[in-house]
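Crash report, auto-generated. Payload:
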Amino acid sequence: MHKTRSTLIFLSPWLVSFAVFWAFPLIFSLVLSFLHFNPLRPDTTHVVWLSNFVKALQDPLFWKSLKNTLLFVAGTVPVTTLVAFFLAVAINQRIPFRTLYRSGFFIPSIVSVVVISIIFKQLYSPFGLVNKLAELLGSEPRSWLSEPRTALLCIMAMDVWASFGYYTILFLAGLQAIPLEVYEAARIDGSGFWGTLRFVTIPMVRPITLFIVVINTIRSFQVFIEIFVMTRGGPLNSTLTSVFYLYDRAFYRFEMGYASALAYLLFVVILCFSLVQMKYLKMGRAAGE
Amino acid sequence: MPDDRAGETTECAVNRVRRNPIFLLPVCAAFSFVFFGLLVSGCGREKGVRLTFWQFWPSEVIEPIIEEFEKANPGVDVEMQQLTWQNGFEKIVASVSSGTQPDLCELGSTWVPRFAADGVLGDVTGEVGALKDSLLFWESCSLNGRVYGIPWVAGTRALFYNKELFEKAGLNPDSPPETWEELIECARKIHSPGNGVYGFGMNAGERYILFKKFMPFAWGNGGKILNQDLSRSEFASGENLEALVFYCSLKKYSLVEKQDVLDMAFKQGKIGLEISGGWNLKTIPADAPDLKFGVAVVPKPKACCGTHASFAGSEILVTFVKSGHQKEALKLARFLVEKQNVISLCRSAKSVQPIFRGAQNDPYYDANPLEKMFVVQLSTAVAPPPHPKWPEIEEIIESTVEEVTYGTRKPEEALLEADNKINSIVSSTGD
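Recovered output after restart:
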C-alpha cells in the first residue's frame, strides 16, 4: 500500500497530463461526434446520434480526402521502410565516416516539419532547385505544387526524405542487436550477402520492422503540417487529406461535431490497418522463428 | 492514553516523512500554488481596469499607440496580445467558446457576420453614431441593421508592374494597362518563358486568396455574388462569365502559382504584372532594392465602361457580449481609429490603408505615391457580401475558378453549379 502510494505520486505528473490532455479530449471528441456543436454557440448544442457519420459517408470530399490519404500512406510507408532498411544495412558495415552518415541521415528528423515544408516549397517553386535539375535532364520547368497531378507526389517525396533518417536509426539499433554468431554460422554454411540478408537479417529485424511500419502508417495517416504549410488541400483538392479536411471543418465551418465524427472514422481506418499489419507481420515472425 | 496514541501517530508520520521526503512534495506544491495565486490576484487588484486587447500587428507597431492611450487614461491598464495569422483565428474561437475572450479584439471583416449571427459580438449600434460619417466600410460590420464593430483599417489589392520588363517589351513604363485588353496585351508582349520571364502572375492552388484575385474582374464588370438583400445568388450572371473567361485567358501568358511564390518571382524580376497587396511596398525595398516597379489600379473591362474594382477587406474592432469592460474597450477602439493613430499604423504596416474619408489627401500619402495608389484603389474596391456563411461561399467561388482555370470544367456549367450551391447555402436557415 505504502509503495503503491509513492509510485502513484511519482507517476502523477504523467497521469495528470494524460488524463487532462489525452483521455479527456479523446472521450470528449467521441461524445462530440454524436452532437451538433458550434463552439461559438454552445447553447444550440443538441444530440444528432449517428447523422454526423451518415453525412460523412455521403460526403464526396470525405472520400476524396480518404483516397488522398491512402495514396499518401501507400506511397510513403513502403518507400521509407525500404530506404531506411537498406541505408541501415549500409551504415552497419565497416565503412569510413560511418558516424557522419548516421548523424547526417538523422538531421531531418530534428528539424521542424514546418521548416522543412517551407524549404521544400521553395525547392519546388518554378525557379527552385528541382526545376533546375529537371532542366538539366531536358525537361520543361513546371510549378510542381500548383499542378493537381504532381502536388501530392511532391509532398510524398518530401515526407520520405524527412522521415527515413529516424527509421534508419531504429533499423540500425535492430541490426546491432543481432548476435554476430548467427552471421558467423551463416558464413560457415556458405551463405552469400543476399542469402544472409534474406534468411538472417530480415527475419531477425522483423520486430523492429513491425514497429516501424505500424508507427509510420499511423503517422502518415495523420499527415497535416505539410499540407497546411504547402498547399492547404489545393489545387483542386488534390492534396486534401483526412486530418486537414477535418481541421477545416472544425475551425473554419465551426462543425466540431462533424469534424469529430470524421476523426473517429479515420481512427477506425487506422485501427484496421494496424491490426492487419500486426497480424500479418507477427505471423511471419512466428514462421521465421 | 489517547494522548499517547496521538503522539505515536505524529512520531510515526514524522518518521515516515523523514524516511521518505516525497511526502513533503504535495505540501510544497500546495504552498507554492497558494503563494503564486495570491501574487497573481494581488497584481490584478491594482486600482483601475485591466483591459485585454488581442490584435494581429507586430507589438512594436501597436505598443506606442497603446502607451499613448494609457497615458491619456490613467485608470486603464491595457494588456495587449499579438495573434498570428496562422493560428489567431482558432485562438479567438476557442476563447469565445470557453468564455475567456478578450475585451477588445481585431477581427477580419469576412468573419464578423458569422460571429455576429452567432450572437457573440457586442452590439455597438448606439455607441458609434459620431464615427459613422468619418469612417467607411460599415456594411462589413453590420448585420440586419445593427452594428457589431468599428472599422479600423482596410487592405486592398492593386496591380504591380515591372518597369524594366515593360521597357524591354517595348511598352511605355509610365503607362500601366488601364483596360482588360491592354492588360492581356502587356502580358503577351512580356511573356517569354524560355527566358524565365512571365507576363502575368496568376493565383491558383491556394485557398482564401484566389477569390480576391478573380472577383476584382467580376466586380469591375458589374458582376455580383449575392443580390442586394443577400437572399439569392447572382453568381451565374453574364458579367461574371465574361470575367471568368477573361481571367482564364490570362493563363496563356502567366506563371500560375501561389501568392508567396508570385511575390518572390516579381521581386526577382521574372513577372511583368501581378495583382498583389501593400505588404510588397514593405518587402521590396528590403529584398530587391534595385527593382524598378510601379503600382496601378486594377484594369477595368473597357475604357468606356466598368470600374477599377478590387478586393477590399477591413480589420474590425469588436467587443464580445461576455467581455467585462465594454465601456473601456470602446474607448480604446475609438482612440485606435483616430486619424493620427491609424496613419501611424498604416505607415509602419504598409499592407493596410486608412478608411477615414479623405485619407488620400493626408500629407503622408502625398509624399508616398505608391502607397497613395492603394488608398485610391480602395475607393473603388468592393467588400465581399457580409453574409454569415461567407467562408462557405468563398470556398465555392474558389473551387469554381480553380476548376475552370485548370480546364476541368467549362465556365458556363461551373458557374451554374456554383450558383446552385450558393443558393442552397444562403437559403438554408441556421447551421
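Post-recovery validation: DSSP finds 17 helices and twelve strands in chain B.
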